[in-house]
C-alpha cells in the first residue's frame, strides 16, 4: 500500500485517511486535548505538550508548518518509520493522529506521540552532560545504537 503511492498529495492523504478508517492508525479527537503548550520547533513544524481529556496524562502533538505534497509524504514516511521501531522501549511511541483546522482552511494532520518529560535527547545532554557518569554516557550510547 505504501510503496505504490505517487507524488500526488491526495494519494498520501488518502493513505492516512484509509489507515485511520481501517483502524490501522488510532484517531484522537483534537477537542479532547487541553492545556496545549509549545515545547519545541524545527524545520517541519512545532511540537506541543497536551493533556488528554479527564486525565493528567501528557502527549506530544507534532504539527507540520506547510501542509503540501512533501509534508503529506513526510507524515506517511514518519508513521512507517515509527511502526518499524515501535517495539523498542527506548524509542518515543507513536500513538496515532489527530486533525485540526482553522476557520476556512484545509485539515491539518498532527502526530500524537509519547511525551518525553526530559525533552529531546539533545537538550537533555546539553543540560546534564557534565553530571553524567561515564557509565551513564555508555548506557545512553548503547540505547541509541540498539534503537
Write a structural description:
The two termini are 26 Å apart. The longest helix has 16 residues, at 69-84. The protein is of the alpha+beta class and 147 residues long. The protein is globular and about 50 Å long. A hairpin with a 5-residue loop joins strand 3 and strand 4. The mean pLDDT is 81. The protein has 2 domains: 10-116, Phosphorylase Kinase, domain 1 (2-Layer Sandwich); 118-146, no CATH class. The chain is built from 4 helices and 6 strands, in the order H-E-E-E-E-H-E-E-H-H. The protein has a 6-stranded mixed sheet, covered by helices on one side. It has helices at residues 9-21, 69-84, 121-128, 134-146, and strands at residues 26-28, 33-41, 45-52, 58-64, 94-100, 108-114. Helix 1 (9-21) packs across helix 2 (69-84).
Assess the beta-strand content as a share of residues: 25-35%
Number of domains: 2
The main β sheet shows up as:
6 strands, mixed
Distance between the amino and carboxyl termini = 26 Å
* Name given to the CATH homologous superfamily of the largest domain: Phosphorylase Kinase, domain 1
Number of helices: 4
CATH class of the largest domain reads Alpha Beta
Number of DSSP E strands: 6
For the residues shown, what is the average pLDDT?
81
Going across the biggest sheet, name each strand in turn. 1-5-6-4-3-2
Rg, Å, rounded: 17 Å
Low-pLDDT segments: none
Tell me the CATH topology of the largest domain.
Answer: Phosphorylase Kinase, domain 1
Secondary structure class reads: alpha+beta
Anisotropy-based shape: globular
Tell me which CATH architecture of the largest domain applies here: 2-Layer Sandwich
Element-level helix/strand string: HEEEEHEEHH
Percent of residues in helices comes to 25-40%
Enzyme class: transferase
Protein name: mitogen-activated protein kinase kinase
Keywords: ATP-binding, Kinase, Nucleotide-binding, Transferase
Organism: Glomus cerebriforme
